[in-house]
Design brief:
The structure is a homotetramer of 207-residue chains. The first copy, chain A, contains 10 helices and no strands. With 207 residues, chain A is mainly alpha-helical. The structure holds a DNA duplex (21 and 21 nucleotides).
DNA sequence: AATGAATGAGCCTTCATTCAT
DNA sequence: GATGAATGAAGGCTCATTCAT
C-alpha cells in the first residue's frame, strides 16, 4: 500500500515470486496464496493472469530457463572456433556455475533435476524442447574430441556422464558439507578437475 | 475382501505401500488414504502405527534403502581383495543397476535424487547416516587408484563425479528416449563405458 | 452440541437437508456449507458420505422421489380393478396432491419440473428411469378409456396433457394468488374438475 | 477481431447475448464473463450499461418476452371476431408453437417455466405484469365457450389447465424422445388434439 | 462511452488427524 | 489391536464487481 514496492507490472512480479516459491517447495508444496503474497498481488491475480496454478508453473519454468541461460551462456563464453578442449571446458563451466548458483538460477536447477527424476508431468514438453538442442551440441563436441572411431553408444554415454557430473552438484547449501566434507573446494577447482577427468577419460578410451 | 490376503502384519503392509506411494508421488503428493487403501488397512492405521505421516515417511525411507542394498550389494559382488579397477567396476555396477532398476528400487532411487536436490527436510538425517560411509569407501577406492600424489580435493571431486554419473541416470522410462535417443543402449554397456571413462580419466590425471 | 438434535445418523440428516436446500435454491444456488449447517454436520461431511456435491444431489433426488411416492401412492388409493374412470381420478389426484403439497414433497416436485424444463444434466438418468414406467401406465389407461379406435398419437398427446395439467400446478405459494386470483379454490375441486375435463374430452373425441 | 461485426450498439448485443446465456444456463449458471464474451464486449460492459447482473437479467427477460410475442402473436393470427372455438385454437397454437420453438423463443419459454416453478425472485414483477392480462383473456374465452352456467372456479381451473397443457411441452429436444417415444408427432397434430380435448371436455361438462 | 487490470468474498474439495467404540 | 465416522484447517478456483484511465 504505502511502500514503494517494485515498479514491475503484477504479471512479472507473480512470475518472479512463482519461481522462488516453486523452487523452494516444489509444485505441490507451493501455494498460490504464498506466491501472491510474495508478489504483493491479490489472491485472484494468478487466475487472472495465468488461468491457474499449473499454467503459472509452466510460465515460471520457462522464465527460469531464460534467466539461467542469460546469466550463464551455454558456451561459457568460449568462442565457437576455440579448440574443442576449451569449448568443453566452457560448457562444463556454464553447467556447473548454473548448478551451484546460490541465487535464483540455483533454485531453478534444483527444480530441474527434481523434475527430471520425478516429473510432475507438467513441464515435460518445455523440458524436452529446451534440453534436446543442448544435448545435440554436447554430442557433437564429444564426437569431435573422440574422433570417428568411437561407437555412437559410447559418445552418448559420455555426453550423458558429463551432464550428470555437473547436474549432480545440485545441492542445497546445507547438504554441501555432507558431500564435500571439510576440504574447502571452490567452483573453479571443481570445473577444472571435472574437465580434466573427462578429457583424460576420452583420450584414454581412444587409445 | 474375504480372502486372507498377504499374511504380513498391517504395519509391514503399510510400510510397503508407503514406499510405493511415496516413490510415485513424492511426500506431498502421497496421501495417507491412498497408502492405507493400497495396504488394505484402515484409514486410521497410519496414525495408529506410526503416529503421523512424517514418521511413516521416514520409516518407509529406511526400509527402501535396506531393500535396495539387499538387492544390489554395494560392492557389486566383487571380492574385497580384487584389484581396485574391478572393485570400482563393481561399485559402479551396483549404483547404476540400482538407479536404472525398473521396480521398487528404481522408484526409491528417483526419490532419493529428488530428496537430495530438493530436500523435504524430513530424511536428511537418515540420508546422511546412510550415505556417509558409502562416500568414505568410494574416497578410499579413488585414492587407491590415483595414488598418493593426487590432492584431497581432486579425490573428492572425482568420487563425487562417479556418484553423479551413476545417479544422474535416474530417469522415468518415458524420459529415457529423450536422453538416449534411438541408439539402443543397455545397462551393461553403460556400466562398462562409465567405468572406462573414469579409470581412463584418473590414469591420465596421474601422469 | 448441547441441544437434543435429531437422533438420525449424519448421512440421513444430510440427505434431508440437501432435499430442502436444493429444492429451495436449485443445484447451483445451493451451497454445501448451507446443507451441512442445516444438517448440523461438519463442512466435510458431504465429501465423506457422498464424495461430492453432485453425488449428494443425485442421492437427495432419489430420496425425494421415494418420499413423494410413499406419501402419495401413484394410484391414488384406487384399487386395480376399479373402473378406468375412477382409476384416472386416482392418478390425477395422486399427481395433483404431490404437486400442490406444501411440504417436502412439493419442494421436490417444483424441483422436478424445473429439471425437466432446464435439466442440469445430473439426474436425467434417474429421472427417465422413474418417469418412464409411470408414463406407460398412463398410456394404457388412456387407451382403455378411449377404445381401440383412437390413434396412437392422440393417446400419447392426451396422456402428456394430463401430466401437464397436473404438474403445471407446481407453484410457489406466493405465486398461487397470481394464477387463481381471489376465487377460493381447493385441491379437491381442482382434482374433480381436471378429471371431468379430461374424461369429457376423451368421450367427445371418441364420438 | 478487427472486423466491424454486427452494427448493433453494445447494449443491444449484451441484451441478446444475455438472453441466450441465461436461457441456456439459468440465472446462477450464467456468468457475466460469458455474456460479455458472446457479445464481444468488455468484461465491465454489463456493469457499465446495466449496473449489475440482476438488472441485466430483468432487462433480458423483458426483451425475451417481446421477441416471443412478436414471433408468435397471442391470438395465433385468428381474427377477433372469429368463433370462440377458432380463437381457442389460435391461442393454443400460439402457446404451443412458442413452447416448442427450437430457437431463441424456446429457450426463453423453458426459462419461463423454470422461473414459475422455482422463482429466482428477480422477475416476479415482470412476470406478473405480462402474464396477468393473458390470463384474463383466456378466462373470458373459456367463459364464452362454457356459457354462464359454469362456476367461476371451474372456469379458472380449465383456463389454467389449458396453459399447463401447452407450457408443459417445454422440453429440451433430448428429452422429447423420452416423452413422445417412437411415434412421430408433429406440432400441428399436438395443437389439434389438445384443442379438441379441451373443447370436448368443456362441451361435455356443460351438459 | 468504454476498457482491462485488479479485487475479495465465497465455494467446493482435499486431507491429515482425532475420537469414541 | 483396530476401526470408521467425523473434524477443521487450508487450498485452488470462480465470479461479480470496482477503479483508474
Amino acid at each position: 500500500m504505502s511502500e514503494p514496492k517494485s515498479k514491475q507490472p503484477t504479471k512479472q512480479r507473480l512470475l518472479q515470486a512463482a519461481c522462488e516459491v516453486f523452487a523452494e517447495n516444489g509444485y505441490r508444496g507451493a501455494t498460490v496464496a504464498e506466491i501472491c503474497k510474495r508478489a504483493e498481488a491479490n489472491i485472484a491475480a494468478v487466475n487472472y493472469h495465468f488461468g491457474d496454478k499449473e499454467r503459472l508453473y509452466i510460465a515460471a519454468w520457462r522464465r527460469a530457463l531464460d534467466v539461467a541461460i542469460e546469466k550463464y551462456p551455454l558456451d561459457g563464453g568460449v568462442p565457437h572456433d576455440a579448440p574443442p578442449e576449451e569449448r568443453l571446458h566452457g560448457r562444463i563451466e556454464s553447467l556447473i556455475r548454473k548448478t551451484m548458483d546460490e541465487g535464483e538460477v540455483g533454485h531453478m536447477m534444483r527444480f530441474l533435476v527434481a523434475e527430471i527424476s520425478m516429473p510432475s508431468g507438467k513441464v515435460l514438453e518445455a523440458l524436452t524442447e529446451t534440453v534436446q538442442p543442448l544435448r545435440r551440441t554436447m554430442l557433437e563436441l564429444v564426437r569431435e574430441l573422440a574422433g570417428e572411431e568411437m561407437s555412437d553408444q559410447d559418445v552418448v554415454i559420455i555426453s550423458t556422464s558429463i551432464y550428470n557430473i555437473c547436474s549432480g552438484l545440485v545441492l542445497r547449501p546445507e547438504m554441501r558439507k555432507n558431500f564435500f566434507g571439510k576440504v574447502g573446494i571452490d567452483q573453479d577447482m571443481i570445473i577444472d578437475t571435472a574437465t580434466r577427468l573427462v578429457l583424460g577419460g576420452i583420450k584414454e578410451m581412444c587409445k
